[in-house]
Design goal:
Strands 1, 2, 3, 4, 5, 10, 11 and 12 form an eight-stranded antiparallel sheet that branches. The chain contains 17 helices and 24 strands. By secondary structure, the protein is of the alpha+beta class. α5 crosses α6. β8 (165-169) and β9 (174-178) form a beta hairpin. It is 30% helix and 23% strand. The structure holds iron/sulfur cluster.
Length: 473
């Protein structure tokens, strides 16, 4: 998963962008990239700036002092295409007759090979294994042919198979656009003074607007970038270019609401906190918890669902697992060794609360089982009477090809969806319980369930994949 953040028509654009980037750090922790422009020149001098690490460490005062101008955007990378190295970090650059253009996106393109081959045949050189470089070079190629950037983007979109929420910057304007199934979240906000802020998550926009006088305490118009328009940010305003493709169904990523979005973010029109409450309510209908002592979230991912479950069932909630906030998300650590040690360093079970009790542990997902297996072991060491593990989504059994690193070592896929086998593998006893929310339960959390992607749970992919990926297994 990645994140994009940026702003247009503001003073100190890079500073505001950095603020937003700090607040989507939970989506990606490997590489930071940023570029800005004052309408004449890009910054820093050898744009873009890209470096490994977290925003706070990487975008230092020294770096920020090199980023001038009234428009900027940044990217946080978590590798899903290409290794974790400089060349694969975003933004990517392409050259046109009118100068450089820079691009970053959140999502994954499936038809990289044929596009790369086509563009190489037309003289393009690639420096990365990343799909965003293909997108920007495809747009540059189309622009060379038609001389109209919005049209070049529209034509490029017709050739892309996969998902992308993208931002493109020329010397004096920016373009925001999105894939035809609106798979990855992408919001923007407009201030009365004409400032435009955009980000993968609305929580980042909230923070960016907090100290921005024209937003008047967050009273701004907030909207999602639509698949049907290309937004051109130019001459201090938004120019909307229609871009309706053939009637294709929407497929918003449901895993965003289950896991990725901050609880205070609105994604695809829904507040993540509300979705998680609905998931917990659906879960409560599927399992009898009457013989349990307390509900405990796996913090922070299970907090909202555990609270909602406690309210619905009347069973008290205890914070019997305490997490360190100085350790990041373990799922987006890139190696298994890093993930394992991060879990041990991150959580501490409170044995005084757990000993002799029937504890209901609530989390949002089991992907590789790294976290839950270690948590069950740590809780077992505190001598509970019984452990019940509840997951607010079904077993993940299929890879994601749309920008989330759900590909290998999926415990539910490895064990063919056998819940009893998964239960044993995470260290639960015969008399203990592992329950996943059903797919119907998951779908019931969305008011428009037909408009969501559930492919990692049910294998029903919303785009063609058979020509581009090897069969599973
Ligand atoms: Fe999201 Fe899963 Fe669909 Fe990927 S496969 S887009 S993670 S719901």
């Amino acid at each position: 998963m990645c994140a994009i953040v940026g702003c247009y028509n503001t003073p100190a654009a890079a500073t505001i962008t950095r603020l937003g980037m700090l607040n989507v750090q939970h989506r990606a922790q490997e590489w930071v990239g940023i570029v800005s422009s004052d309408g004449h020149n890009f910054y820093p001098e050898r744009a873009p700036f890209r470096a490994p690490g977290h925003v706070r460490q990487v975008l230092t005062e020294g770096v920020m002092s090199t980023l001038m101008g009234h428009m900027a955007f940044g990217h946080l990378r978590y590798s899903t295409q290409g290794a974790s190295e400089l060349n694969n970090a975003q933004p990517h650059r392409a050259t046109t007759a009118d100068g450089d253009i820079f691009f970053a996106s959140n999502g994954d393109i499936l038809n990289c090979s044929p596009l790369r081959k086509e563009l190489r045949g037309r003289g393009a050189t690639f420096y990365s294994a990343n799909d965003a470089e293909i997108i920007v070079k495809l747009i540059a190629h189309r622009y060379r042919e038609c001389g109209d950037m919005a049209r070049a983007i529209r034509e490029a979109k017709r050739q892309l198979v996969g998902t992308y929420s993208g931002v493109l910057m020329t010397r004096d304007r920016m373009f925001l656009f999105r894939d035809p199934i609106e798979n990855r979240p992408f919001s923007y906000a407009v201030a009365p003074d004409g400032a435009i802020l955009f980000a993968s998550e609305t929580s980042a926009i909230d923070i960016m607007t907090a100290d921005y006088p024209a937003f008047e305490g967050k009273r701004y118009r907030r909207a999602e970038v639509s698949r049907d328009t290309i937004l051109e940010l130019a001459n201090g305003t938004i120019i909307t270019h229609e871009d309706r493709q053939e009637d294709r169904k929407l497929a918003h990523c449901a895993f965003e609401h289950v896991y990725f979005l901050r609880p205070d973010s609105v994604g695809f029109g829904l507040l993540a906190t509300d979705t998680r409450k609905r998931l917990a309510t659906a879960l409560a209908k599927e399992i009898d918890l009457s013989e349990t002592d307390f509900i405990c979230p796996v913090p922070d991912s299970g907090n909202v669902a555990a609270l909602a479950l406690s309210r619905v069932t009347g069973i008290p909630m205890e914070f019997a697992l305490v997490r360190s906030h100085y350790i990041g998300r373990t799922f987006i650590e890139h190696t298994q060794t890093a993930r394992d040690s991060a879990v041990r360093e991150k959580f501490n079970p409170v044995s005084e609360l757990i000993r002799g009790k029937v504890i209901v542990l609530v989390d949002d997902s089991i992907v590789r089982s790294t976290t839950i297996r270690q948590l069950v072991g740590m809780i077992r060491g505190c001598e509970p009477k019984k452990i019940i593990v509840l997951i607010t989504a079904p077993p993940i059994q299929h890879p994601c090809y749309y920008g989330v690193d759900i590909k290998e070592r999926l415990i539910a896929a490895d064990l063919a969806g056998d819940i009893e086998a998964i239960k044993r593998s995470i260290g639960l006893r015969e008399d203990e319980v592992l329950h996943y929310l059903s797919l119907d339960g998951l779908r019931s959390a969305f008011p428009d369930p037909q408009n969501w992607c559930y492919a990692c749970w049910n294998g029903d992919y919303p785009t063609s994949i058979k020509d581009y990926v090897r069969p599973e297994g």
